[in-house]
User: What shape does this take?
Amino acid sequence: MLKLKKIISMALVASFLLTTLVACGNTKKGDASSGTPSGVVSNNKPTKELSGKVVYWSMWNESEPQAQAIKKAVELFNKDYPDCKVEIQWLGRSNSQVVPPAIQGNEKIDIIDNLPYTADPTMFLDITSMMKEPAIGQPDKTVEESILHVLNVANKENQVSAGLTGEHYGVPMSPWTVSFFYNKDLFAKAGIEKLPTTWTEFLEVCKTLKSSGINALTTDDAYMTLIPNGYLARLVDKDGIAKLSASAKDELWKSEAVSQTYNAMEELSNYYSSNVKTNKYPAGQQEFALGEAAMYLNASWFPGEVYNTAGDEFPWGAFNFPTVEGGKQDASTISLGAIPMSVVSKSDNKEAAMEFLKYCVAKEVQDSLSKDGQVAPCTVGSEWPGAVKECGAQVESAKFVAPLAQGLSSDFVNAVFSAQVNKIITKSATAKDAYATLLKEINKY
Assistant: This one.
């Protein structure tokens, strides 16, 4: 059997995306814990006889707010099932490298998180039966119904991409979504009272801000493609994005949608801060946090990244990516993701592990995560906290999902489409010249 210390020594540095997705905390890898906060009262009426131990290897550090919410779930669970204990190893972000070899080495693990289904689809247990049971504290809803619908949609799509044929293999936790963050004070200064819902309205907002002496937009090299990709997705929808990603030879690359996207970005370039030409991440974020630009498109982890600059009193606002007139995609599709929490298929205590997942997504636990930890909850009716409060309304009303940057990706996309659109945004090339270059480069891919 593999030992925890040996496994941890194999861990690599966690990816940029996951480290920015969550709140930072002191790393305490390998600390086993069953400690819990006090004052928790369960309204559940347990009908199962559970005993033994549930072992959970977690991506969170014990000091993080997500860990505190999980400890609350442990106490709720232990009150209802005193003969079944939960043991947690707080591994931090290294868990994505630590867990797979541990499971392959027959380490006794029941619950995991932060692992894509594509890592090894055989690791994940079908938990559909549990998802159809009543939610903790909400007997009028199943667990599935208690979780924001669009999170289940996103989770299902990830399962399908891994070849999993069941309905549920994880509960989606710690959601994020992409929004236009805006400075409410700067909008008020410019006299803007109505948030834009269409691209035409969005451009009018940009013009109004500029006429008031305010930089309407900023960005940096890390996120410069989010707006053009979002615009193109609104025109061609997910199926079109999939075709564009699959082949540079697809006729869609020669369509009006691509040239229109370049033309739209050329018009929009008039409203960016002049600093975008030289902004290296996180310069654009800092520019926004300092109140030097009114809007910045990013994911809902963004406010946490700039908290030290923006402070407690920053006037955060957020709105959904505008629809594009004549496009195929409406506002019900948003860029969104979450972290699945799953039961290991080799678990020795499957029923207890599935039952504990129900407590982790109990509304009481998720409400405390939002209120006390300022972290986005995954449950229906739970209010998103502080700076991302308005993101929560977008998620609750959404029906369809897309990945970060819409999933538009390939060698051709990165080397040609995105490179040329970045030149347009920084006024290093015209839309006409950029599109001509794109057409010439197609035959090389």
